Amino acid sequence: MNQLILSNKEIASKFSDCNTLSDVIKKVEKNGWDNGNVICGITLNGIKLTEEDENKFQASSVQEIDQIEFQLNNISSVVESTISSILEWFPSGIEGTLMTAELLRSGDELKAFEVFTQVVESCCWVSDSLNLLKSMCAEKIKAQSMTQTWDQSEIVLKQNIEALITSITTKDYQLTADLLEYELTKSLEDWSHILKQLI
């Protein structure tokens, strides 16, 4: 991992076309991308920013920046670790999906809701990660003629998550159990197969 540390003076000279924190981040992001790196963390005036902080302070003037530090990582390293993390999660994710379906069918709704929440949150994380991977692996996906499969599988996963949230909200537990066991499990298995092709 590399670091890029910029003082207020360096921002004024090297980023004279930037007016806000958001402008600086976008420029560093583009320069990093052009050199095969992505931003993995930002520290502003000694405070490590969360994604929420980044959104909150994005309109801040560059004059309010005393020092900003970017943690940059090589795209291929990020891709490898992201794919590895997702693939490691799949077995427990599928197990949790099937367990939730079983709990709902047996009437243990309290325990089912607990596991369901973890499964859906993890699936949202997978979906967000896949979106990130799609841009990082665009050439490899295209080279392996996987673009259409990727796009369709991405849509199916998002639709499954939405359908699950709707069915649990309307207390249609039979439908939720069926969606978990038959639709979401298949979607996760499909993604496992797709991602293994990128390793």
What characteristics describe this protein?
about 200 residues; alpha+beta; 4-stranded antiparallel sheet; 4 strands; about 70% helix
Topology:
Layout: E1 2-7, H1 8-14, H2 21-34, E2 37-44, E3 47-48, H3 51-57, E4 67-74, H4 75-106, H5 109-136, H6 138-143, H7 147-169, H8 173-196
Antiparallel strand pairs: 1-4, 2-3, 2-4
Helix pairs in contact: 4-5, 4-8, 5-7, 7-8
Principal-axes geometry comes out as elongated
Let me know the largest β-sheet: 4 strands, antiparallel
Low-confidence stretches: none
| Order of the strands making up the biggest sheet | 1-4-2-3
Count of the separate structural domains: 2
Radius of gyration over all CA atoms, rounded: 21 Å
Order of helices and strands: EHHEEHEHHHHH
Q: pLDDT average, as an integer?
A: 92
Percent of sequence in beta strands: 5-15%
Secondary structure category: alpha+beta
Amount of helix = over 70%
- N-to-C span: 21 Å
Tally of alpha and pi helices:
8
- What is the β-strand count? 4
